Amino acid sequence: MSKRPYRKQLRDQLFTWLLHGLIFLVRRLPRRAAIALMRAVGRVAFRLDARGRRRTVRHLTMALGAEKSGPEIERLAGRVYRHFGTVLADVMRMPVLIGQGVNRLIAASGMHHLDNALASGQGVLMITGHFGNWELLGAWMAQNGYPLRVVGSPLENQGLNRIVVEMRNQAGYTNIARGEGTREIIRSLRQGCAIGMLIDQDTKVPGAFVSFFGRPAHTPTGPVLLARKFGLPIIPIFMYLKDDLTYQIECQPPLTLRHTEDEAQDTQTNTQLCSDAYERIIRRFPEQWVWMHKRWKTKPRSQAKAG
Question: What is the Cα–Cα distance from 56 to 219, expressed in whole angstroms?
Answer without folding.
Answer: 19
